[in-house]
Inverse folding.
């Protein structure tokens, strides 16, 4: 008997994922690029409600729900549900409701975090007893960002997303302001722009000896190529840098783009400074939210 048989519904949290840095390496034959990234998760995110139903149903609400196809087989949440069923695990029809607060196509891993949360939730609710290692293998077949989202603390992500190691005592400010220019960035287009321009650099595999601090200060390799396609990101970053406190203790990592865009972030040591900056960004006409990193699941 599943836990869901005894309880009418379960509610789970899917945090926003932040790439505090992102180094892109050579493309593998499978089509994915080698990468190295320090990833963090925030107290801001989506809320997922799961309950028994007569048929599978995915319902989206919230600010960023309008442009998501819920009936498509490409939906990561439904793919995750079906991936577990395909392993011969019996999971009855479910009604899954997601309050979408994370910007869609914004480089904050909303879809991947939702999918990872479904894996974790169903594994627990239906007592599937799948190990984290097995969940990672299943998740990687659906999306390269999903495995890291099975965690909730700072992680070092490598390979094509399958190499995941926790980072402890990482010297990263607690508070973060997330911003978005109001449009969806196409990840595929950003990587195509990267590949088109990177040929001259002849980039090979990411050096194994690359340290965490060095990696952090390398920034985001995709940022200039995303800007080539979406100049609005450059405008947002310019606005953020102008509004950011003049005394910047964090150097080049203070204001950056996350993932393949379009969202960006700013780091702060204290809540008051983050809230003040957040207010200024909103007054400049952008969506933004002030939040903090979480370090445990």
């Amino acid at each position: 008997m599943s836990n869901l048989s005894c309880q009418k519904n379960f509610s789970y949290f899917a945090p926003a994922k932040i790439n505090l840095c992102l180094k892109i390496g050579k493309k593998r034959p499978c089509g994915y690029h080698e990468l190295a990234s320090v990833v963090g998760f925030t107290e801001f995110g989506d809320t997922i409600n799961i309950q028994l139903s007569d048929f599978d149903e995915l319902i989206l609400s919230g600010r960023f729900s309008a442009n998501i196809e819920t009936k498509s087989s490409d939906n990561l949440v439904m793919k995750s549900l079906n991936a577990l069923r395909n392993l011969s695990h019996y999971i009855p029809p479910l009604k899954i409701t997601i309050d979408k607060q994370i910007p869609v196509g914004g480089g904050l891993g909303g879809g991947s975090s939702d999918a990872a949360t479904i894996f974790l939730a169903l594994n627990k609710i239906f007592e599937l007893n799948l190990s984290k290692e097995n969940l990672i293998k299943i998740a990687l077949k659906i999306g390269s960002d999903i495995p890291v989202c099975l965690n909730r603390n700072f992680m070092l992500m490598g390979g094509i997303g399958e190499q995941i190691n926790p980072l402890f005592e990482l010297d990263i400010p607690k508070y973060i302001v997330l911003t978005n220019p109001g449009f969806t960035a196409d990840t595929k287009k950003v990587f195509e722009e990267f590949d088109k321009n990177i040929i001259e650099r002849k980039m090979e595999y990411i050096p194994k000896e690359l340290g965490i601090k060095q990696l952090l200060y390398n920034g985001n390799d995709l940022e200039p190529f995303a800007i080539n396609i979406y100049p609005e990101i450059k405008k947002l970053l310019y606005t953020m840098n102008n509004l950011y406190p003049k005394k910047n203790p964090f150097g080049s990592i203070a204001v950056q783009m996350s993932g393949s865009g379009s969202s960006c972030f700013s780091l702060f040591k204290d809540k008051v400074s983050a809230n003040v900056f957040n207010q200024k960004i909103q007054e400049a006409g952008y969506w933004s939210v002030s939040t903090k990193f979480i370090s445990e699941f």
